[in-house]
C-alpha cells in the first residue's frame, strides 16, 4: 500500500503568496460558532503541482479502469480536518467547494466521528435494510426526530432514497401518479391501463411531462436528465423525454440598479411558463425548480418570481416541486433556501440530498401512494445516512443555532468583501451574488474563470466552477469569518497576478 | 426510546411445529464452510402475530409519515446474527430472503463488524467524497484489489454508483453514447446536436431504444422503469420511453421432460428478438437481460439461449448488457450467474448492486467515455460500500472458496429436497428450479403462495415472494446445509397443514 508523505511545515514560498494578518477586508466579524480545536491554521502547499507526484501516479493507475479527466486531486481523509483538506501529497488546502456542497460539517468533525464509532452506527453500516419491507427498529422514531423536524410546513410525509437524481425521479413519479389519479377520479386502474403499461404505451404509461427551466440541473438518470438543461455534455447522445423547458430569469447586477429590467425579465419568464403549461401538446403534470440554479451558474430570481410561479402551478393543476438538493441544509442562511420566498402556499414536493447525506423528498398528504409498491425499491435510502443527518441537525441546532448564524455572518462578510474586490478587479470578476455562504461571481470568460480556479489551487484553495463562467463557493457550515478572511487574502493575492 | 423485550426461551408451542432432528430429507451434506460461532440454534416465535405488539405500534407511528403496507416486520440488528433475524418483539426467524438478496454474509458477520470498526471505515462513513473529482487516496488501489479482481474477462473498466437502478440507467447511457459515436464516426458533436439536445430533441438527444424482455425487472427510475416489465403496479401512470419488449422463454418443468418444447420456445423468443431489432422504428442501441429473471418470478433460460442472444446482439450492433443486480456475487454458485453460459464473446456491460453493496457496471474498453463529464454525478458510488465489498470478497475467497462451495452443496441439497416435496405436495408446489441457493418454486395460485409465505413466518421463517405465484430463496452465503435442513422441516410442517 501507499506510503504516506509526512506534511512538512516548510512552505515553498514562491508557491504561496499568503499575506495573513494583512486584513485587507475590514474587521473580521465575530461569530457565535465555537472554533474547531486543532484545525490547521492555514493552507500549506509543498508540491509544485497539484496533484503532486504521488497523486499523479495513483491517478494514472486509476485511469486504467475509470475516467480520470475530472479529478482535481486525491483526498487523504485521515489527515484532513475542519475546513482544510489534505491531498495525497500532503498539501493542505482551504476547502470552499466541499465535494460539490456535500460536506456540511467539514472533515472529521468530532461529533460525526464520535457518532460513527458507536455500536449503532457500525451495525447500520454493516446491514443495508430493505427499508420498505424490513426497516430497522429505530427507523421510524429517527425519521420523526430528524427529517420530520425540518419538514416544510404542510409537507407531512417523506420518501427516502439514495441521492438527488433518485429523489427527483421519484418526485416526478409521485407527481404523475397524483396527476393521473385526479383525472381518473380516484378510481381503480382500468384493464386497458394495466395492459398498455406493460408495453410502455398510453393510457397505462401516459404521455405526461415535467417542465423545467433553462440552465436547470436536476440529475443524470434518464428522467432527471430530461429536466436537466445546464450543459450539452450531460445530455448529448442520451434519449430524453420530449418535455418542455421554460426560461429562467437572467437578472442583471447590481440588482438595485436594474429593478425595472429585472422585473420585466421575471414577468417575461412567468408569462412564457404559463403559456407553455396551457399550450404544451404533452400535458404538464409537474414543474421542478431550484431556489438557486447551482450547476447552471448560480442563477437567482426574486422571491416575488417564485411566489408567482407557485401560483401559476396551483392555478393550472401542476405539481410544484422544489429541488433543494444543492441549496438545502442551512448553507443559504435558511434551513431550506425556498423559505426566503415567504410562500403562503407551500410547495407540493421538496427534494433533498447532498449535505443531508440521506436523500429523498417531503410531500403533501394528497401525494400519498394510492397502493403499496407504486414507489418502492430495495434500499429506499440508508439509515446510516439518516444517523449522519441527525448529527448534522444537532450541530446546526446547538447554542441557539449558532451554526446558522455563522453562515449568515460569514456569508455577508464574504459577499461584501467580494463586491469590494469586484470594483477593484472589474476585468476579472462581476455580478457577485448569493445567500448565506452560497455565493458566486462571474468571470468575463471561461478561460479567466479557469485560470483563477487553477491558480488559487496552487496557492492553497480548492474552489468550484459552475455554469459557463462562474465561480461558486460551497464551503461547509463550519466555515467562519476567519476562514473567509484567509480566503480573501489568498484570493486577492492570486488574482492581482492575473492579467 | 424503545424498551427492548428480552427474548425468552419459552416457545409458544402451537406456533412452532418444529420437528428438528427428524431429518426428513436424507443425510445432511457436509460443507467446507466453518460454522458461525454463537449463531442461534433455531427460530423462536414468542408473539402470536408478526409483527408483534411493539412492532405494530412502531409501524403505525411510521405510517403517519411513510408507506407501511409493504412492511413485513421491524428488524433489530443488534440482536440478529448469522442466518437469524430478530424482530422488534424478540421473535427469531430463519432468514432465507435477506433483504431482497442484499445481505451476503448474514447479520453481524464478525469480519464485517471488525472492518467497520476501523478508523478507515469510520472516516469513509463520515465523508462522502465526490468520487469523480475528489476521490479518497485508497479508491484506485481498492478498486484494483476488489472489483477488478472479479471483473468479467475483457471488461476492463468499471463505473461505480449508488444502486441497481442507477447502474442500469448509466449502462443505458453508456450504450447509447457508444452507439451514436460509432455512427458519428468518432467525430466531434455537431452544432445541431449541441443545440437540439438542450431542447430534448433529436439529433442531440436521439431517438434510441433499449430492448428488454417480458417479466424483466431493471429498476424504478424512469429510464430503468422503461425496461422493467414485471408488474403493472410498478409502471402505471408513469411516463415511459417507447422501447420494445421481446418475449422471454417460458420453460416447462421438469426440463428433461420438455426438451423439444423448451428448445422451440427459446428459438421462438430468439427469432422474435432479432425481428424486433431489425424492424423496430426506434433503433435499438442496447438490450438488457437478467441471467435469471428474479422479480418476474425466477424465470430461467438455457445457456444456449443466452449464447445465441449474445450473437444476435453482436450481429446487429446492439450493446449486450447483463443485469447481475440480483443474481451476482456467488449466490448462483458462480460469482456471476452469466458465467454458466460459457460465452466465447463476453457481454459488453455487466451491472451489479445488492450483495456487492457497491453498485455499478463493468464495461469493455470501447465503451469508454469520449469526453469527461459525460457520465458523472456527485457521489459516483461510495468507498464505504467498496470496503464492505472487500470484506465480502475476502470471505468468499477464504479456504479455497469454501463459501462458494457451500452455496453449491447447500443449494443442491435444498433444491433436491424441494423437488421431493413437490412430488409429495403437487397441489401446493411445482416447477422447483434454481442455481446454487438461488432457488424458487411456483404455487398453483397467488393465494396459495401468499398463504405459505404468511404461515411459515409464524413458524419462524422469513421467505420471499416473486412473480405472480413464485416463492424465492435468497439466503445469505453463510446459509449452510443445516439451515436448509431446518428450513425443510419447518416448511413441510407448515405446508402439510395447508389445504
Automatic annotation (TrEMBL), chains A, B:
Keyword Repressor: no
Pfam families named in the record: Aminotran_3
Catalytic activity: 4-aminobutanoate + 2-oxoglutarate = succinate semialdehyde + L-glutamate
GO MF annotations, alphabetized: 4-aminobutyrate:2-oxoglutarate transaminase activity; pyridoxal phosphate binding
Gene Ontology biological-process annotations: gamma-aminobutyric acid catabolic process
EC number: 2.6.1.19
GO cellular component terms, semicolon-separated: mitochondrion
Key words, A-Z: Aminotransferase, Pyridoxal phosphate, Transferase
Cofactor names: pyridoxal 5'-phosphate
PANTHER family per UniProt: 4-AMINOBUTYRATE AMINOTRANSFERASE, MITOCHONDRIAL, AMINOTRANSFERASE
Family stated for the protein in its record: Belongs to the class-III pyridoxal-phosphate-dependent aminotransferase family.
Protein's recorded name: 4-aminobutyrate--2-oxoglutarate transaminase
Species of provenance: Anaeramoeba ignava (Anaerobic marine amoeba)
